[in-house]
C-alpha cells in the first residue's frame, strides 16, 4: 500500500472518529429513553443507507445466506452496544461512557487470534496496557451498588459488544462495500429494537425528532460507514488502538458544546491515550 493511500485511510479514519465522538452528546441533548434513541437512530440510519444504495444501484442484501446471518448478528451486537453506551452515559456520565468503552482495543488485541491467524505481539500488549492505564486514570474512584458502578459496568459491556461486532464484520463481511454492511447492521438493529415502540410513545417533539434524525443519518449512517470502510483496510488491532483517541475528541466536544470542562484526570489519561495512538500510527505507516 502506498504512503498516499495510508495517509488517506488514516485521515478518513480520524474524521470518522471525530463524528462518532459526537454521538455521546445526544445522550444529554435528547430527552428520550436510551431504547427509543437507539431505535430512532437505527431506523433513520437504515432508511438513509437504503436510499443511498438504491441511488448507487447497489444491492442491499448479500447473496450468501451465511453473510446475511453475519450481518444480522453483528447488527444485534451493534444495537446492544449503543444501548449499553447511552445507558452508561445516563447512569454515570458521558465521560465515563466514552472512557470505559475504550477498553475495547484491549479486548480486540486478545480476541483477534480467535478469529484470525494472528498472534499478539509484545508491543501490542504494551500499547493495550498503556491505553488501559490512560482509561483507568480517567475513571474516578467508585463503589459497587451505585449508579456510577452500574454506568462503568454498562460501559464495559458496550466495549465488549463493540469489539465482537468489529471482529465478526471483518471476519465475514470485509469484502463487501461498507455502506452495504452498515445498512445490514442498522436494519437488524432497528428490527430487534422495534418492540420499544409498543412500550413507549414515538417522539412527536420536533427538537427530539430532529436530533434523532441527525444522529441516525450524519452521525451514524455516514460516520459508521466511513469507520467500517477504514476498519476493513486496517489491521483490526491497529483500528482498535488508533480509535482510542476518541475519548479525547469526546472530552473536547463535551467541553465546547456542553460546557463540561475536563479535569486533571481527563488531561493526564488523555495524554497517555494520545501517546498510544501516536505510536500505533507510526507503526502502521512503517508497516508494508
Automatic annotation (TrEMBL):
Pfam families per the UniProt record, alphabetical: EamA
Keywords noted in UniProt: Membrane, Transmembrane, Transmembrane helix
Organism: Leptospira ellisii
Cellular component GO terms held in the UniProt record: membrane
InterPro entries (UniProt xref): EamA_dom (IPR000620), EmrE-like (IPR037185)
Stretches that traverse the bilayer: 9-27, 33-53, 69-89, 95-116, 123-142, 148-169, 208-227, 239-258
Name of the protein: DMT family transporter
Amino-acid biosynthesis found in the keyword field: no
Domain EamA: 16-138, 150-276
PANTHER family for the chain: ACYL-MALONYL CONDENSING ENZYME-RELATED (PTHR22911), MEMBRANE PROTEIN (PTHR22911:SF102)
Amino acid at each position: 500500500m502506498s504512503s498516499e493511500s495510508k495517509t488517506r485511510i488514516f485521515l478518513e479514519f480520524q474524521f470518522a472518529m471525530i463524528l462518532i465522538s459526537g454521538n455521546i452528546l445526544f445522550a444529554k441533548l435528547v430527552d428520550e429513553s436510551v431504547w427509543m434513541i437507539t431505535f430512532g437512530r437505527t431506523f433513520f440510519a437504515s432508511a438513509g443507507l437504503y436510499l443511498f444504495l438504491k441511488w448507487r444501484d447497489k444491492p442491499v442484501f448479500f447473496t450468501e445466506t451465511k453473510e446475511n446471518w453475519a450481518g444480522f448478528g453483528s447488527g444485534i451486537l451493534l444495537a446492544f452496544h449503543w444501548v449499553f453506551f447511552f445507558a452508561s452515559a445516563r447512569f454515570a456520565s458521558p465521560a465515563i461512557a466514552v472512557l470505559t468503552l475504550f477498553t475495547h482495543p484491549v479486548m480486540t488485541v486478545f480476541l483477534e487470534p480467535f478469529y484470525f491467524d494472528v498472534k499478539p505481539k509484545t508491543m501490542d500488549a504494551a500499547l493495550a496496557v498503556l491505553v488501559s492505564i490512560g482509561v483507568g486514570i480517567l475513571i474516578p474512584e467508585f463503589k459497587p451498588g451505585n449508579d456510577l458502578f452500574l454506568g462503568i459496568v454498562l460501559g464495559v459491556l458496550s466495549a465488549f459488544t463493540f469489539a465482537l461486532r468489529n471482529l465478526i464484520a471483518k471476519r465475514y463481511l470485509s469484502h463487501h462495500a461498507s455502506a452495504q454492511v452498515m445498512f445490514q447492521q442498522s436494519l437488524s438493529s432497528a428490527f430487534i429494537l422495534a418492540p420499544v415502540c409498543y412500550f413507549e410513545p414515538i417522539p412527536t417533539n420536533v427538537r427530539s425528532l430532529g436530533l434523532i434524525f441527525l444522529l441516525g443519518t450524519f452521525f451514524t449512517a455516514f460516520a459508521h460507514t466511513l469507520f467500517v470502510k477504514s476498519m476493513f483496510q486496517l489491521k483490526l488491532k491497529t483500528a482498535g488502538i488508533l480509535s482510542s483517541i476518541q475519548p479525547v475528541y469526546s472530552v473536547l466536544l463535551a467541553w465546547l458544546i456542553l460546557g463540561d470542562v475536563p479535569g486533571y484526570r481527563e488531561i493526564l489519561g488523555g495524554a497517555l491515550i494520545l501517546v498510544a495512538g501516536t505510536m500505533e500510527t507510526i507503526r502502521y505507516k512503517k508497516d508494508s
